[in-house]
From TrEMBL:
<feature type="signal peptide">
    <location>
        <begin position="1"/>
        <end position="16"/>
    </location>
</feature>
<keyword id="KW-0136">Cellulose degradation</keyword>
<dbReference type="InterPro" id="IPR005103">
    <property type="entry name" value="AA9_LPMO"/>
</dbReference>
<comment type="similarity">
    <text>Belongs to the polysaccharide monooxygenase AA9 family.</text>
</comment>
<keyword id="KW-0732">Signal</keyword>
<keyword id="KW-0119">Carbohydrate metabolism</keyword>
<dbReference type="GO" id="GO:0030245">
    <property type="term" value="P:cellulose catabolic process"/>
</dbReference>
<feature type="domain" description="Auxiliary Activity family 9 catalytic">
    <location>
        <begin position="17"/>
        <end position="208"/>
    </location>
</feature>
<protein>
    <recommendedName>
        <fullName>lytic cellulose monooxygenase (C4-dehydrogenating)</fullName>
        <ecNumber>1.14.99.56</ecNumber>
    </recommendedName>
</protein>
<keyword id="KW-0964">Secreted</keyword>
<keyword id="KW-0624">Polysaccharide degradation</keyword>
<keyword id="KW-1015">Disulfide bond</keyword>
<dbReference type="GO" id="GO:0005576">
    <property type="term" value="C:extracellular region"/>
</dbReference>
<dbReference type="InterPro" id="IPR049892">
    <property type="entry name" value="AA9"/>
</dbReference>
<dbReference type="Pfam" id="PF03443">
    <property type="entry name" value="AA9"/>
</dbReference>
């Protein structure tokens, strides 16, 4: 009986793991897993000081990954695997660069463009789950032309009660964006600006006393682009 319970627990834990598999630009998709630096598994990243926090395991290499056309102001819809783990979804851009495929994304230059945390009593994973595990947001209207990495992150907070317990599920897409903007601020560094003991990563009272309406996802404020 004990072995059965342990097995069921392991199956449940694994089934809750997730990846970013597909996206749409203004309603058009390049295809399933096209344009995305797919990781070797659906396991989470837990070491926020590792380069894996940038675009997941093996995600610093975009060789062979298509770069998909978009324009500033376009809508982006992402689709993830279903997840029962409570937490937010955020999106960041890195660029503009000459070649998204040749860019590691390691270091300074990331800026947040979208965030969905806890709304009307539900975490982002629940809100997305009610819409075929999708989330739609808009690229900033003022972006400089060039190629970018689009980083989609789902943070799972169910184990955030211990330092190093929060789980990060990350996928990076490659975009070639046309626009007429210049700069977006503030910027952050990955790795560098996430710490294991940050208040949005380590939440010791997550299950007793924590007010989720106060939660703001890692990565700083949503950037202003001009």
């Amino acid at each position: 009986m004990l072995n059965s319970l342990v097995s069921l627990s392991l199956v449940a834990a694994v089934s809750a793991h997730q990846n970013f598999h597909q996206f749409w630009v203004s309603g058009e998709t390049p295809g399933y897993q096209v344009g995305i630096r797919m990781p070797p598994s659906n396991n989470p990243v837990t070491d926020v000081t590792s380069t894996d926090i940038v675009c997941n395991v093996g995600g610093t290499d975009g060789t062979g990954v298509a770069t998909v056309a978009a324009a500033a102001g376009d809508s982006i819809k992402v689709q993830w695997d279903q997840s029962s783990h409570p937490g937010p979804i955020t999106h960041m851009l890195y660029g503009p660069v000459d070649s998204a495929a040749a860019t590691t994304g390691v270091g300074a230059g990331w800026f947040k463009i979208d965030e969905l945390d806890y709304v009307d009593g539900e975490w982002a994973n629940v809100i997305m789950g009610a819409d075929n595990m999708t989330h739609t947001f808009t690229l900033p209207a003022k972006l400089a032309s060039g190629e970018y990495l689009l980083r989609s992150e789902m943070e799972a907070l169910h184990a955030s009660t211990t330092v190093g317990g929060a789980q990060f599920y990350i996928g990076c897409a490659q975009l070639s964006i046309t626009g007429s903007g210049s700069a977006c601020t503030p910027e952050i560094s990955l790795p560098g600006d996430y710490s294991a003991e940050d208040a949005d990563i380590y939440i010791p009272d997550f299950y007793y006393g924590f007010d989720p309406t106060t939660f703001v996802a890692p990565g700083g404020a949503v950037a202003t682009c001009s």
